[in-house]
Structure formats: structure tokens, C-alpha cells
């Protein structure tokens, strides 16, 4: 079965860090572009970050300098390292592969 | 950044009605547009890519059209299972951007 499974969400204090993982099965994360997309509670979808198959990375202005997207091809896993977290980073974070494949999402809550 | 403006923000229609949602880009994005469906509490699902191409397995009552800055998403005959929020997304220029969403309800 082709699927993406995110882990790593949770409650973190403002200014803290968290690393999200997205493990792929039946799909090779290095074969296509991979995105992180987030959705704040009750809000719309927001694109966060992209890594192309060649390794180039891109970020939304709201997270640039604080978040880092990467992948481990040997583990077939995508990551999002998040630092200097703020309350407005609170959201469900989805990994997305090639436009049509989405994980189930992992909730990140930034609160004291 | 390219702004994507969807309208309406919500609509209520009867089963069997034709439903149309529009999405306007703040600059030319050619046909680099996706349409997603998100049912309550669920993961977004890709319905249409490249503005008008139907994703595999998606019912043919869903369609998309347009290019440049103006795009249309249509449900030809609304079904109860189509209750959801629909989003357009441009992928012509980074940062990729979504419209604010259109919530579709049954009247």
C-alpha cells in the first residue's frame, strides 16, 4: 500500500524545537517533489516547504530561517526540523508527495 | 507571492444542482493549478491537476477549466458525499499558494 505516515507532533513551548518525520512506503521520497503543508485549527491550507528530487529546497516566508526540510533516502523518510516555534505555528502538518499523496497529518501545538 | 482568490467562500445547493467555484490568480499561472477536496476531519484529496485534468479515480462529475488567471471548478450534479471544502492551489511560482477555500453544503 502506498502511504505516508507522519510522526513527531506534540505540545511544545514557544521558542522550542520539534522534528517531524514522514515515512513513506510504496513510494520513494527521492523520486518526486515532497511538500509540507499545514492547516491551523479551523483555517485553510498553507504551503510550508518543498524539496525537489534533486535536493533543492524552498520555504514559505513565514517559516524561512526557522524550518528546515530534508530527507534520508536510505530511510525513505522526509523531515521537517522546526525551531524558534511560535503560537501561530500551531497546526496540523501534512507531508505530501507529488501532489496526490498525503499523510494523515500530525498536530503541532505551540503553547506555554 | 501569487494571491489566489476563490469565490464564493461558501455555498449551499441542492442535490443534483450544478455547482461552480471560481479561482482567480493575481498573475498569470498558465495552467499550473490544482483543485483539492477536503471533507471534515479528513486529509485533502487531489481532484484536478493542470487546471483541467481529472485525477485517476475521481468521478467525472468533477471538472476544471481555465488558464492564465481565471479558473473554474464545477460539480455537474452535486451529491451528498460532495460536502466538503474545496481549495485551489497554484504551483507555477514559489511559494506555492492556496485559495482560502469554498465550503459546499447541501441545502
Describe the structure.
- The complex is a heterodimer of chains A (112) and B (107).
- Chain A is mostly beta strands and 112 residues long.
- Chain A contains no helices and eleven strands.
- In chain A, strands 2, 4, 5, 6, 9, 10 and 11 form a seven-stranded mixed β-sheet that branches. A four-stranded antiparallel β-sheet of chain A has the order 1-3-8-7, with no helix packed on it.
- Chain B is built from no helices and eleven strands.
- In chain B, the strands form two sheets. In chain B, strands 2, 4, 5, 6, 9, 10 and 11 form a seven-stranded mixed β-sheet that branches. In chain B, strands 1-3-8-7 form a four-stranded antiparallel β-sheet, with no helix packed on it.
- In chain B, strand 9 and strand 10 (97-98) form a beta hairpin.
- The interface between A and B is medium-sized, with 18 and 22 residues.
Amino acid at each position: 500500500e502506498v502511504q505516508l505516515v507522519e510522526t513527531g507532533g506534540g505540545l511544545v513551548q514557544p521558542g522550542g524545537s520539534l522534528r517531524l518525520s514522514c515515512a513513506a512506503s510504496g513510494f520513494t521520497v527521492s523520486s518526486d517533489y515532497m511538500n509540507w503543508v499545514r492547516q491551523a485549527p479551523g483555517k485553510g491550507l498553507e504551503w510550508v516547504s518543498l524539496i525537489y528530487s534533486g535536493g533543492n529546497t524552498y520555504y514559505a516566508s513565514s517559516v524561512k530561517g526557522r524550518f528546515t526540510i530534508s530527507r534520508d533516502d536510505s530511510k525513505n523518510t522526509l523531515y521537517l526540523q522546526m525551531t524558534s516555534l511560535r503560537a501561530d505555528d500551531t497546526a496540523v502538518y501534512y507531508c505530501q508527495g507529488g501532489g496526490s499523496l498525503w499523510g494523515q497529518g500530525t498536530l503541532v501545538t505551540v503553547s506555554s | 507571492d501569487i494571491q489566489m482568490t476563490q469565490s464564493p467562500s461558501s455555498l449551499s445547493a441542492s442535490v443534483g444542482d450544478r455547482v461552480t467555484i471560481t479561482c482567480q490568480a493575481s498573475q498569470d499561472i498558465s495552467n499550473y493549478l490544482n483543485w483539492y477536496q477536503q471533507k471534515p476531519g479528513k486529509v485533502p484529496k487531489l481532484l484536478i491537476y493542470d487546471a483541467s485534468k481529472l485525477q485517476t479515480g475521481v468521478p467525472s462529475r468533477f471538472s476544471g477549466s481555465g488558464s492564465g488567471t481565471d479558473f473554474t471548478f464545477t460539480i455537474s450534479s452535486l451529491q451528498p458525499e460532495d460536502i466538503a471544502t474545496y481549495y485551489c492551489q497554484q504551483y507555477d511560482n514559489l511559494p506555492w499558494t492556496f485559495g482560502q477555500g469554498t465550503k459546499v453544503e447541501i441545502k
